[in-house]
Amino acid sequence: MSFSLGIVGAGQFAGQFAKLFQLHPGVGPIRVTDLLPERAEQLVASHGLAGTAGSFEELLASDVDAVALFTQRWTHGPLAVQALRAGKHVYSAVPMAVSEAEIAAIIEAVRETGLTYMMGETSHYHPATVYARQQLENGAFGRVFYAEGDYVHDMDLGFYEAYQYSGGENWKATASYPPLLYPTHSIGGVLGAWQTYATSVSAIGVVDQRGDGVFDSEVSQFGNNLSNATALFEVAGGGSFRTNEFRRVGYPCHIRESRFRFFGTEGSFEQLATVSLWQDKKGVTDVSQHLQAQPSLPADDPSLAEVAPALRDAFVSGTAPVHDAGRARLPREFAHAPNGHEGSHHFLVDDFVTAVNEGVLPSVNAWTAARYTLPGVIAHESARRDGERLTIPDFGNPPH
Description:
Layout: E1 3-8, H1 12-23, E2 27-33, H2 37-47, E3 51-52, H3 56-61, E4 66-69, H4 76-85, E5 89-92, H5 100-113, E6 117-119, H6 127-137, E7 144-152, H7 155-167, H8 171-175, H9 184-191, E8 198-207, E9 226-235, E10 240-246, E11 258-264, E12 267-271, E13 276-280, E14 284-286, H10 313-316, H11 324-327, H12 344-358, H13 366-384, E15 390-391
Parallel strand pairs: 1-2, 1-4, 2-3, 4-5, 5-6, 7-10
Antiparallel strand pairs: 7-11, 8-9, 8-15, 9-10, 11-12, 12-13, 13-14
């Protein structure tokens, strides 16, 4: 059993995921559309895909069963709703959307159509998240009461090139995208292990001082001048977690851009760029090797020729030993396929394909995606209000 797929947006990440969708036995013909037709044509030619569509609307009018959205991050919400209303299953890159109204519209469309929606949040399958999830299930933490999640990615390490590639002449206006509106790489790793949700937030933003036209509210199409932000969330059931979204920071994000900490009454877990530690009342255990993702491609692989060097780890990192139990469910065609984001890409693609073909909820379904995304939207508003504590609406658990 397989379904046909339309890829929307033929940028750098689309090519990596196109390869995996093409390899998966649960996916049939793949078509591509992009606002720049030559990019769609290039992706089709380089991977031997089925063809292109002249526009998003033309793709939705075709017989494709599903679409995968790899467009600019603030466009995902409306495109997802349009696709669902057109009868297509949806895989969406992060974030889910940029407002509460857009998130609500996606959930309503999924509820009414019964179609599959999945947000491709990489941190849900990061080795640290998988390990913390296992430790929680085993009761090793006792009661978790506090956690931390950081997405620490400096503009100088790959983001200038990425925004120039995607934004064209107007790239500075879009490079100012508010950090807290891209929250899922930090929140998703926390809530992907700790089965709770955020109920309120207070956030503080740092006004940028580089003076290069990025994070300049007069240039920004988002009116944003914050390059760094920190948010403290209250969670249901008691406890809290803190996230950092940093875009101006002295940190080697090419080694590890998302990192996590969990503290419980019986045990704790802490992660830095190169070290991961399990700690309890008896002592400290270095679990770094257990969580170390192995390369899935050599650094000089031709497919990475157009990828900024500082972003290449997002494309080449493979699975870690902690992933061993989950790897057995992956199709054998993925055995030597490119991977990325600490081994998450294979699991994300398989999750979506399995959900569509078997009619089951994916791990990061619309309701889970809302809990990974909406807290950041509310946190950004809190930062704009000088840290005012705001309530975070919750859309509940998915229906059975």
